[in-house]
């Protein structure tokens, strides 16, 4: 099973990952039923195109070079039940509002990447879950099994792959329709209003920024005597953790007149912290596709590991190909990150640096409820900006778990949610997300930080 560290890239194929150890995979009871579903999937139309993928890679190259900022956000785990117009629209709205704040405050183009239209597979710290003396297989995301704590719900069901693919297509179709129909046009940010935030403490600052952008657009259009659609048009890209490798493989295709292979079920697959082993199947799979690829970098991953990932995933040092998403935790980022920043900087490799201030700051409170404190999330992001500045590197993006709903999953923020608030609207099936207000507040903090 132990593969060489620098295998001949000509030996990569969409199935070469099967020669490596694949951790965090579902154990299907019926291999034939799984294969039949994968065969169906491999003949379905793709969800995204190679042109879009290459456009995102180009935008990542710009962000790596300091010219853009990437906002990546969405649910920890999408659920089939949440594939509804309201939830999709609200998530799109909060991402649009955050990006507007970032564009205005950072004076940079913002690249928007949703954690949606395919974020259905979850890595778990344990294969089993015990409640009240009963032990069952863990929930691994709606693409594999169901969260209900019953034996039947937890059996991996290959039909769920088809449902996940269909819901991803529906989500993406709706997002594309909204955007093409003018919903995301910067001339009409009033379409993005989320009712419940009207009286939020941050509403005034947000409105000021919206008005300022509207004024600038109108001013430029007066000068140009035409509508500046290039400036006011908004793109959206998709991303998900490339965890379920048979599913990813089924969407890995060649396209006419383009070299190489593309993963056509998302623009940007990423490798999670638990599957970032240099000799593991996930790194093997991701090294062969043209898509820009993210990798989570966590505490304990040393310089040799990170440089090894870059060598393996991007041996030709193609700009925009790899985003390193560090997720250290507010307590340890100051000791863990600088050696990595310095080593990558000195290696001369092109990297898009992003900060995920969520996953190093998860904690459990009474009753085992998982939460995150807004102050820790904010502190990690603040420190990340400072540490990059000190190393002479550019922090080119933020990776966040958020929702457009009024949930109470993370504590703190402008309304200072407390432990007792958590019970009120705790809906996530996996990790706690920033609610709409907390997400917008974080975007403003990023901007304030850069202005200070
Ligand atoms: C996630 O992004 O939901 C996740 C599990 O992150 P990580 O791999 O960084 O722990
Ligand atoms: Mn998560």
From TrEMBL:
Binding site for phosphoenolpyruvate: 115, 296, 327
UniProt GO molecular function: 3-deoxy-7-phosphoheptulonate synthase activity
Binding of Mn(2+), residues: 76, 359, 401, 431
Catalyzed reaction equations: D-erythrose 4-phosphate + phosphoenolpyruvate + H2O = 7-phospho-2-dehydro-3-deoxy-D-arabino-heptonate + phosphate
Keyword Manganese appears in the UniProt entry: yes
Enzyme Commission code: 2.5.1.54
Annotated transmembrane regions: none
Pfam families for this protein: DAHP_synth_2
Cell membrane among keywords: no
Alphabetical list of InterPro entries matching this protein: Aldolase_TIM (IPR013785), DAHP_synth_2 (IPR002480)
Entry keyword set: Cadmium, Cobalt, Manganese, Transferase
Manner of cofactor binding, per the entry note: Binds 1 divalent cation per subunit. The enzyme is active with manganese, cobalt or cadmium ions.
GO biological process: aromatic amino acid family biosynthetic process
NCBIfam families documented for this protein: DAHP_synth_II
Annotated family: Belongs to the class-II DAHP synthase family.
Designated name of the protein: Phospho-2-dehydro-3-deoxyheptonate aldolase
């Amino acid at each position: 099973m132990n593969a060489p560290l620098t295998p001949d890239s000509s030996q990569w194929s969409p199935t070469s990952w099967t020669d490596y150890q694949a951790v965090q995979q579902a154990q299907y009871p019926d291999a034939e039923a799984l294969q039949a579903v994968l065969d169906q999937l491999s003949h379905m139309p793709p969800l995204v195109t190679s042109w879009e993928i290459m456009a995102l890679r180009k935008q990542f190259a710009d962000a790596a070079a300091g010219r853009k900022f990437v906002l990546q956000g969405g649910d920890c785990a999408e659920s089939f039940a949440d594939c509804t117009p309201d939830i999709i629209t609200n998530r799109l709205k909060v991402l649009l509002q955050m990006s507007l704040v970032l564009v205005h405050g950072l004076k940079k183009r913002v690249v928007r990447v949703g954690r949606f239209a395919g974020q259905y597979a979850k890595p778990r710290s344990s294969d089993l879950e015990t409640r009240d003396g009963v032990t069952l297989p863990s929930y691994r995301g709606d693409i594999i099994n169901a969260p209900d704590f019953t034996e039947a719900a937890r059996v991996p069901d290959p039909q769920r792959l088809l449902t996940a693919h269909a819901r991803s297509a529906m989500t993406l179709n709706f997002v594309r329709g909204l955007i093409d129909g003018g919903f995301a046009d910067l001339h009409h940010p009033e379409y993005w209003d989320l009712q419940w935030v009207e009286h939020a403490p941050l509403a005034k600052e947000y409105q000021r920024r919206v008005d300022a952008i509207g004024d600038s657009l109108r001013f430029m259009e007066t000068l140009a005597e035409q509508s500046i659609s290039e400036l006011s048009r908004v793109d959206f890209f998709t991303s998900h953790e490339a965890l379920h490798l048979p599913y990813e493989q089924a969407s890995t295709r060649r396209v006419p007149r383009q070299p190489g292979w593309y993963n056509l079920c998302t623009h940007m697959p990423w490798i999670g912290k638990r599957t970032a082993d240099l000799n593991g199947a996930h790194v093997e799979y991701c090294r062969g596709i043209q898509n820009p690829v993210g990798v989570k970098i966590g505490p304990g991953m040393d310089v040799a590991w990170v440089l090894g990932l870059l060598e393996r995933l991007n041996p030709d040092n193609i700009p925009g190909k790899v985003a390193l998403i560090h997720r250290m935790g507010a307590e340890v980022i100051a000791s863990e990150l600088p050696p990595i920043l310095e080593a990558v900087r000195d290696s001369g490799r092109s990297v898009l640096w992003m900060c995920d201030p969520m996953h190093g700051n998860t904690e459990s409170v009474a009753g085992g409820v998982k939460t995150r404190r807004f102050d820790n999330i904010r502190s990690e992001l603040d420190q990340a900006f400072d540490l990059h500045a000190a190393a002479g590197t550019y922090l080119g993006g933020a990776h966040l778990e958020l929702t457009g709903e009024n949930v109470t999953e993370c504590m703190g923020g402008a309304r200072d949610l407390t432990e007792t608030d958590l019970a009120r609207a705790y809906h996530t099936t996996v990790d706690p997300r920033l609610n709409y207000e907390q997400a917008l507040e974080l975007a403003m903090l990023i901007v304030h930080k850069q202005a200070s």
